[in-house]
Fold this sequence. Notes:
By secondary structure, the protein is mainly beta. WD repeats lie at residues 285-311.
Amino acid sequence: MNAASSDSVNSVSDGRGGYMTSGSNAPLYSANFFASTDPATERDMHERRLALALDIDPSTRLFSPSSPSSGSGSLDNSPEQGLGASGKLVWKNNEWNREGSITSPLREEKKKKAVPIIPFRVLNAPALRDDFYCSVLAYSHSAKVLAVGLGNTVYFWNESGGVESPPNLNPPSSSYVSCLSFSSRDGGKGILAAGRSNGHVVLHSPHESQTRFDIHQPSPICCVAFRPTSRSKDSMRDRYISVKTEDLLIGDEAGHVYFYSVEWPTETERDLFDFRGCVTLIVRLTMHTQQICGIAWAPDGDTFATGGNDNLCHLCDTRRVIAEGKPDTAHLTSSSFPSFNVDRQVDLTLPHFNISALFARHCFTVAAAVKAIAFCPWQRGLLAISGGSNDRRIHFFHTLSGATLATVDCHAQVTSLVWSTSRREIAATFGFAQPEHPYRIAVFKWPSCEIVVKIPWFDEHRALFAIPYPGGPNISRSHEDSELDARGRDRRGRARSRSGLFRSRDWRREGGLWWSRTEEEGCLVVATSDCSIKFHEVWAEERRATGERGGMLGGSDILDLIHGIERDDGEIIR
């Protein structure tokens, strides 16, 4: 994809035929979603036309030394020599041919798709909110379950056990589920944080039948995000014992972000010491003036970014935030609130330390609400963020310097971003788009920003939110049925849903082989505006040449050297 101008993006010429984002020296790219042919096809067509104009047979690479000169040079052993070779050119079978020449039937080489454009699994999801601001998908590597928020109910789904909805997780309420997040993989707790529109955040583990905490915030909840790594700190039960805790960020409709520390003892420790855990409010961040739309952590947990409806994205250092907070000003233990049911809600409107926008390391401004935020897992210092309908771009930033590295105009509302873990690629999903824009999922290379995968949806439905899922089309219907007994119950005695909820619409494609990258990286689970959950393979198998590449960090070899990036032509992350 070449740098190009876009009507929706302010840009200036770079003097070399490309464009830069206004106010920076970062290249501006325009996603090539509307071209009928890709650059490789156009180059091949140009070569054929040029060969025809010069009367050269592309299948014969060498000139025959014994061929008589005929003005333009003839080719050796051409199959069409002597049969109308001097006839006039005519357009036949979608190509130029000599009149009277013997031509073989047109052989159309069907181009192999980078990935299947049809999802390998589709789950019905009635009551799924068609809301850009909701993030109602989460996956737990510890519990091996996918959590989905449908209306006012949270459901757990996995490939072998089907669907279940713990009653303690879903009290009778008219409020809807707005966001979900699971705790860190290395912590092994599998704690689910479920935020609701009435200001409640429920903490529940799929391994347990009872819900431990129900936190009541002063404003409706918009975002929740657990830190991807656990943190050691002194236990609230015994100050002389160090335990692993989970850090949790909660964003609300007022633009506040609350930083919590969650101590979650095991069931054995809970029964032995009669201590169900503790939720500690460390600090409140008051950086945004409007509702929080997105929160993301860096893979190492050292930094996090918050995006708001005020078109701002703030980047913060975790250690600095914890150091500035006052963890002893507000904490709750289960000894004071033993049940945490709906009638015993935990009100955490206690004194806390506020941090303003001046505390952030960097502040990035875009043209719309910032929901999609993704830190690169294989390159420290690389951050991608995207805005809503008025922005329609993917912005790449250097987190240490705050410099803009590149911008891609996607001609559509960007709803989520997911980095590849094995190659220099990033996947994006799209919501509202231009009428002629049929694509709802695309994969871009970094740093060339070339499109390597684009998946169209041939309807007007939109991708609302997406997360990575470590699986592919490898579970057959017969395998799932083997997990159920004759009464339609699974091995743990849970009744399988017969109402059609999360029922797969088509299992015929499952059980076969799939792309090795899907086996390695998994797929993308997408919440769709047609009340369905789609499982898409998005990571292409084949490599594509992208031409000469510059430094990964905005073409800067100096920044590459600082971060220890080796200059090589390989695309695979080692």
